[in-house]
Amino acid sequence: MATIPTPATDPISKSISEPTVHLQDMEELKKVFGRFDANGDGQISISELDNALKALGTGVSKSQLELVMKDLDKDNDGFINLSEFADFCRSNSADGDSTELRDAFDLYDQNKDGLISASELHQVLNRLGLKCSIEECKNMIQSVDSDGDGSVNFEEFKKMMTNNPLGASRNNL
């Protein structure tokens, strides 16, 4: 089942957050990584990162892309490899910073109405290459929708993301 992206702490975190997913397993992580690694060489270049972010509807400036690469490229080879990508995903999963959570929430709240609907969740997850049906998205929403309105508000999202240990039911969305 697909899971929730969470942003980094820098100002461009919202843009880079699309690929950063709390993944249930390494296979899901590899799928998301593969969406960014367009040429399949096992590493994400700055141009691949730029193209993937644009495809997700969030372009960033060249200087912001360079900052992302500097932050994620731990071995300083000019590319983000699978290990660096995985480390980035894992590092964000342990912190419950409100700004990061708001950025992650805003990524899904496509129409900016303060709610994540099943259709918004479906759209974002499919853009990330995490194929799921609208019915599966409705079930994911229902699993965290404490007020029963059929959507996830920020408080429900925040509770889901901060009250669960790594790898627990946070993988619902």
UniProtKB/TrEMBL annotation:
PROSITE patterns: EF_HAND_1, EF_HAND_2. GO terms for molecular function: calcium ion binding. InterPro entries: EF-hand-dom_pair (IPR011992), EF_Hand_1_Ca_BS (IPR018247), EF_hand_dom (IPR002048), EF_hand_pair_protein_CML-like (IPR039647). Signal peptide: none annotated. Residues 24-59, 60-95, 96-131, 132-167 form the EF-hand domain. It comes from the Eukaryota. The keyword Acetylation does not apply. The keyword Phosphoprotein does not apply. Keywords: Calcium, Metal-binding, Repeat. It holds the Pfam family EF-hand_7. This is EF-hand domain-containing protein. It comes from Acacia crassicarpa (northern wattle).
